[in-house]
Structures are given as C-alpha cells and as structure tokens.
C-alpha cells in the first residue's frame, strides 16, 4: 500500500474541472458514510486527515490508520486531548477539554472538505494557540454567545482577541458547499452536524457514487488501495 494522498497535489488537484464537483461530493459522502458507521459502533477515529485517506482510480475512498481510535460510551469518559493532527483538531480539544465525542471527527472532516475545495489547508497553524487563532480569524472568536460554556474550558482566556466571522472564500459558494461546511464547523460540539445527518444535506442531492471513471492521466496520480 502506497502513501496516502494530499489534496494539494493529489486526487482532487489533478482532475479536470468538469469532474471536480462530482468528485468532491462522492468523496465526502463516502467519508461521512464511513465515519457514521464508526460512530454508530461507538468508535472515534481521532486522527482524520488527508494522509489517512486511501483512494483509487475509480473513486473509492477508505479511512486508514486507526492507531488513535478509541471506543466511547455515554456519558463520555475523560479522554486525552493530545489527539488529531494539529491542522484538523477541533476547538474543544484545542481548548483543553477531556470530554469530547463524535464532534471531533466531524470537525476534522470539515477541515478536509475545505482542503479539497481550496487545494490547501484552511487552518495551518504551527502551535495550538496559533491554530486556535487561525480558526477564530475566519469563524469568529468563540464566545459564550456562540458556544455556551466555552469560557469554562481549561485553556479559554478572556483576553483572547475578538474577531468577527469572515465571508468564506468564493470557492465554497461556487461548489454550493458553504452551508454544509458551516454546519460541520459549528463551535458547540452538541450542535455540530452528525455524519448521518450530513449525508442527508441538500449538497448530496445529486451525488454520483463510485465508480467515477477518471481520465488515465489523472488516475495515475491517485493512490491505489489494492
């Protein structure tokens, strides 16, 4: 099995523009389906990122590397916050909570979705505080108004700079992906869209499932799962 893809120079970046939206839809639908299966069976992946996704030339995509995966129960037990590669780490984890659940995987999928659209990571921090501030600069600073209870998290500071939400890059609107993305990136984990409900979002009304026949020149760049 070869190295996993990076969307900047991997499967999405290499395809012709007319294939782009159908591939985005198919990849994300498959990812939500896979993580919904995990969550229904009370498994958190906890390390979703492009490097842990395997795809082939027919458009099948699979989750890989369950080394940080853990089972969970309700109520949620305390878990380590040293999980998920920094660029895909949910704000509740960045703010020090030890009580998290499926929302951490959903946030990571939102970051992956953005990376496929923008062809670059949306929040590429070099430290936990830089990561948090990069999120705040785009999504607005987390407050008691948009995330009740966040001020009580271990790493939350009243002195955080106050940023207002910014408009999303035009590419999100181009692919009619802005509403789905924003529902995946809700600060309050209890209000973040579930994987199962994400599959019912209108963004997927015309999703074309695999196989997606890519041009040969494009398919050569895609990691094989076999």
Automatic annotation (TrEMBL):
Its EC number is 2.7.11.22. One of its GO terms (cellular component) is cyclin-dependent protein kinase holoenzyme complex. The keyword Kinase applies. Keywords: ATP-binding, Kinase, Nucleotide-binding, Serine/threonine-protein kinase, Transferase. It catalyses: L-seryl-[protein] + ATP = O-phospho-L-seryl-[protein] + ADP + H(+); L-threonyl-[protein] + ATP = O-phospho-L-threonyl-[protein] + ADP + H(+). Belongs to the protein kinase superfamily. CMGC Ser/Thr protein kinase family. CDC2/CDKX subfamily. This is cyclin-dependent kinase. It comes from Pseudolycoriella hygida.
């Amino acid at each position: 099995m070869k190295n996993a893809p990076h969307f900047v120079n991997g499967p999405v970046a290499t395809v012709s523009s007319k294939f782009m939206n159908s591939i985005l839809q198919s990849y994300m639908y498959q990812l939500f389906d896979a993580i919904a299966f995990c969550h229904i069976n009370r498994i958190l992946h906890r390390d979703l990122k492009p490097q842990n996704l395997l795809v082939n030339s027919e458009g099948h995509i699979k989750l890989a590397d369950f080394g940080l995966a853990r089972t969970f129960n309700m109520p949620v037990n305390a878990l380590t916050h040293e999980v998920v590669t920094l660029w895909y780490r949910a704000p509740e984890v960045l703010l020090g909570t030890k009580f998290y659940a499926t929302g951490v995987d959903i946030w990571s999928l939102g970051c992956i979705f953005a990376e496929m659209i923008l062809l670059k990571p949306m929040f590429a921090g070099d430290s936990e505080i830089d990561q948090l501030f990069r999120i705040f600069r785009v999504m607005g600073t987390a407050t008691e108004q948009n995330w009740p209870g966040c001020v009580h998290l271990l790493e939350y500071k009243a002195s955080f700079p106050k940023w207002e939400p910014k408009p999303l890059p035009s590419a999100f609107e181009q692919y009619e992906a802005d509403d789905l993305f924003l529902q995946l990136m809700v600060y309050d984990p209890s209000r973040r869209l579930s994987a199962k409900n994400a599959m019912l979002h209108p963004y997927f009304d015309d999703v074309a499932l695999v196989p997606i026949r890519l041009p040969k020149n494009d398919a050569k760049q895609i990691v094989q799962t076999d």
